[in-house]
Amino acid sequence: MLQITLHDVADFRLSDVPEPAAPPAGWVQVRVRRVGICGTDLHAYAGRQPFFRYPRVLGHELAVTVHAIATDVTTVAVGDDVAVRPYLECGTCRACRSGRTNCCERLTVLGVHIDGGMCTYINLPATHLHHAHGVSLEGLALVEMLSIGFHAVRRANPRSDDRIVVVGLGPIGLGVCLAARARGLAVIAVDPSANRRAFATAQHLVGLAIDPGSDVLAAVRAACGDTLPDVVLDATGHPAAMEASFTLPINSGTLVYVGLVQGDLRFADPEFHRRELTLLASRNATAEDFDAVIAALPSIDIAAWVTHRTTPTTIATDMPHWRNPAYGVIKGMLDFDDRATW
Ligand SMILES: [Zn+2]
Ligand SMILES: [Zn+2]
Question: Which numeric CATH code is attached to 2-131+301-335?
Fold first, then answer.
């Protein structure tokens, strides 16, 4: 079978490798159809993903077709198209036992900590496959990315009249906006990119998208009608922006860091206490978040989100461009069915 390995920084290699053994009890063998390319993949390709080990088979945003099942599996059938929840939890640590499998103490993520889905066949636990009837393969491959935003909004647990500000309109921030919209909340978004603001507005993900300029606090206050938001979700993964977001919630408000940064963040403790802020981290997503995304998928224009496409034979040349903001990538997608020249 075909496998694409990121052998080292900026070095994709195609190879013909043996197919996996028949799936063990509770597991399923799937054929990979579409693979969404996300920031983690681009960082790994560029050598900017701390602690990343090479060689690695990337791919964690997966749309797959069930190819074979163990005899005890009843939740999926051969031929089903499904989305994959790529977070393999231990199931026994305290986080897992309290339902928070997304932050398992021994979590391994496909395509990050262990080899992922850039291969023809892969074995997966049946528990990590999600049906979305009537959704295209590209739609299935968006579920994991969008689930990150749905988890973040669930963490914030907003009231119906809360003012919501989303900082950062990359794919994760757009997913946050979609999750808030799915709850009927009005969202103000903040991003310096005119292209991303235009996308969020055109897709009706936000009521208003503003350019923060040099003074984010002043810009947000003006956009909120001379007050501050109840809930701020930061999806920038940028330290200066994340520290600025700390000043944005109203007294009694909530700040959720969705994006993460490799390093320390600083905040003024008097500000934290004066406003009695609730500060939350949000990591990955759970099965419940996947189900919420799947319920919301019919309301989005999937074709508009997938702005760029590649194949196993072109990924090595496309990947460097996709990191360039001038290319305007919202979501790049690897079509694993298309291997005519391989
Ligand atoms: Zn991803
Ligand atoms: Zn665990």
Answer: 3.90.180.10
Please state whether the peptide bond connecting residue 55 to the residue before it is cis, i.e. omega within 30 degrees of 0: yes
CA 94 to centroid of ligand 2, rounded, Å: 7
58/315 Cα distance (integer angstroms): 12
Render each residue's pLDDT in the chain as its tens digit; 342 residues. 999 999 999 999 999 999 999 999 999 999 999 999 999 999 999 998 877 899 999 999 999 999 999 999 999 999 999 999 999 999 999 999 999 999 999 999 999 999 999 999 999 999 999 999 999 999 999 999 999 999 999 999 999 999 999 999 999 999 999 999 999 999 999 999 999 999 999 999 999 999 999 899 999 999 999 999 999 999 999 999 999 999 999 999 999 999 998 889 999 999 999 999 999 999 999 999 999 999 999 999 999 999 999 999 999 999 999 988 888 899 999 999 977 655
The structure tokens listed for 269 are 């403790």
Q: Quote the pTM value.
A: 0.96
The Å distance, Cα 103 to ligand 2 centre, comes to: 7
Rounded to whole angstroms, the Cα distance separating 15 from 339 reads 13
Cβ atoms of residues 174 and 298 within 8 Å: no
Distance 28 CA to ligand 2 centre (A): 21
CA of 108 to the centre of ligand 1 (A): 14
Between helix 194-202 and helix 171-182 the angle, nearest 10°, is 30
Looking at 3.40.50.360, 3.40.50.720, 1.20.140.10, 3.20.10.10, the CATH number of the domain 149-281 comes to 3.40.50.720
Question: Distance between CA 131 and CA 111 in Å, rounded?
Answer: 21
Gyration radius (Cα) of the chain, Å? 20
Per-domain boundaries in the chain:
2-131+301-335, 149-281
- Please give the distance, rounded to the nearest whole angstrom, from the Cα atom of residue 93 to the centre of ligand 2: 4
